[in-house]
Amino acid sequence: MTTTEARPTGRKPPQLVDMSWDPITRIIGNLGIYTKIDFANREVVECHSTSSLFRGYSVFMKGKDPRDAGFITSRICGICGDNHTTCSDYAQQMAYGVKPPPLADYIVNLGEAAEYMFDHTIFQDNLVFVDFCEAMVKATNPGVLARAERTEAPRGEIHGYRTIADIMRAFNPFEGEVYKEALKVSRVTREMFCLMEGRHVHPSTLYPGGVGTMPQPNTFTDYLSRLMRVIDFVKKAVAMNDDVFDFFYEALPGYEEVGRRRVLLGCWGAFQDPKTVDYRYETMNSWGKDMYVTPGIVVDGELVTNNLVDINLGLRILLGSSYYEDWVNEQPFVTHDPLGNPVDMRHPWNQTTVPVPQKREFDGKYSWVMSPRWYDKRTDQHLALDTGGGPLARLWSTALSGLVDTPYVKATGHSVRISLPKGEALPETTLEWRIPQWSNTIERDRARPYFIAYAAAMALQFLEEAMGLVRAGETKVFENYEVPDEAIGCGFHEAVRGVLSHHLVIKDKKIANYHPYPPTPWNASPRDMYGTPGPYEDAVQGQPVFEENGPDDFKGVDIMRTVRSFDPCLPCGVHMYVGKGKTLTTLHSPTYGANHG
Q1: What string of H, E and C letters represents the secondary structure of 205-269?
Q2: Which residues of 46-67 are buried (b: 16+ CB within 10 A; e: fewer)?
Q3: What is the SS3 assignment for 577?
Q4: Which of 129, 156, 259, 430 makes an SS bond possible with 562, Cβ 3.0 to 4.6 Å?
Q5: 275 exposed, middle or buried (CB, 10 Å; 0-12, 13-18, 19+)?
Q6: pLDDT digits over 181-194, tens only?
Q7: Residue 152, φ and ψ in degrees, nearest 5
Q8: Which residues are 494's β-sheet partners?
Q9: What structural domains and CATH numbers belong to the chain?
Q10: Dist CA 329 CA 123 (whole Å)
């Protein structure tokens, strides 16, 4: 069932223990991971990913004015609401036949670049790296920490830490230098975001047709001054992450198997090129390839397609282990796309959401998350794509396509080169992310600081382009439009943690059908109708256990590292209204390490 490779023969008699983590801490939402662990052979033999709440946006969006879609769908999430607004606006612009002025697109790109920098920094340094900090490694792998104390940090001249253990200490929660500095960087990058999109995290200035951000003389220089304040932090973050992750491979031979699954990556593209994008479906293949993050589907290291039309037509929403009634016998909303291609009944344009609450059974139905898949015509398979946490798929797809070629970012066909200017202390630096051997826990986490650098570098170009337009007097930021009686639209974008699409059907000037598909439903999906596990399940199931603790004091750090490497965030997958005055209370444990002393 799992897509990871089979384990070697010559195993010990199994010592199976049921263990669960529900809810997973350090994320928003109601994600539960249920496992069977074989402590004799030190591996996870079974995993189920569950979500205990239902989300009904696709239900109550029906009948609404489509112009409200961006503001409503922003509330899907309190973390990446702007990504939803942006994606919704893209879908609406396609449906309305409107193209925003170039300056508006640059402003959106700058806002989204700041969001990537903000969110990836706070997640990587204040949430993910808790699993790799001194306090956690001491509690789970004291032998590894002892080795880290003796191991020189190869890139110490960049980040300033002598040993790997010194880096780990810098990430100790609430106390470590980097942990605290990352919080300051997240504040600055959030300010950058607000300069472009008005309010974080639910934008007040993004609309279909353009933006409400007025380009004052200081709008872009205020953004630039903040960006230059964090450039050196970004350079150091890449160096620190590389040092720690390379050390883990060396200290724990075989650690590449933790969280490893077959390379099945999806990226829907980000950062429109205002010079070529017109948001028309008929030209989507062309302007999609002009995005500054190239869309693509990567299977076993091969770029299957970077055509957004093909990506769109291959989308399938499968059931199986999720609590919903099927809709395939209903009348379709859309039979053909604007190019005349047939649209499948399981495509988001045709989906109808009918929840069916029931008891959780792991051999039956056990999650409110559906199972998005991409149909590969070459093999007649429904692929359980994952996002690699967002950055891994973005970098991999962009590298293989080799289309991005700017003064600051260049895709080579096997890598992505990122050039950052001189900062306050560090010189001009060129970073290079190379396609790795594996799609695993460490490479998902490693890609994140590289993509922070990517977003920072592209922001520099967007600033130059935007300021050039302002100097030329091209300050228009909005284009009028009319809502048609009937239309369809689709928006493709990258939320922070990966693929994001919005599919819209308009009839009688109202929303007849609306389905947003963010990254977490892809990553957290349960086993589908063909028995294929979702990415969390597949990555955890079959992975080895390196933690030194036994069943009695087992913390599951390797499992948590794997799940968190995907940057999980459940609000976009589920939600529920209880009614009748009943109150749901959710208690969250503080981040590990507050009292680790």
Answers
A1: CEECCEECCCCCCCHHHHHHHHHHHHHHHHHHHHHHHHHHHHHHHHHCCCHHHCCCECCEEEECC
A2: bbbbbbbbbbebbeebeeeebb
A3: coil
A4: 259
A5: exposed
A6: 999 999 999 999 99
A7: -65, 140
A8: 499
A9: 16-573 (1.10.645.10)
A10: 42
pLDDT digit string (tens) for 419-440?
Answer: 999 999 999 999 999 999 999 9
* Separation CA 58–CA 575 (nearest Å): 11
* Residue 194 annotated in ligand binding: no
Task: Quickly count: other Cβ atoms within 10 Å of residue 347's Cβ.
Answer: 23
- Measured CA to CA, the distance from residue 501 to residue 492 in angstroms comes to 5
Cis peptide before 23 (omega within 30 of 0): yes
Q: 47 among the known binding-site residues?
A: no
Strands 206-207 and 210-211: antiparallel
Rounded to 5°, angle at Cα 361 from 360 and 363: 155
| Residue type, position 378, single letter | R
Burial of 360 (0-12, 13-18, 19+ CB in 10 A): middle
* Cα–Cα dist 325/31, whole Å: 22
How large is the greatest C-alpha to C-alpha distance in the chain, in angstroms? 75
Give yes or no for a cis peptide into 201 (omega within 30° of 0). Answer: yes
Percent of the chain predicted with pLDDT > 90: 88
Separation CA 38–CA 551 (nearest Å): 10
Is residue 77 marked as binding? Answer: yes
Take residue 31 and report the two structure tokens written for it. Answer: 């994600």
Whether the full predicted model's pTM is greater than 0.90, yes or no, is yes
Question: At residue 579, does pLDDT exceed 50?
Answer: no
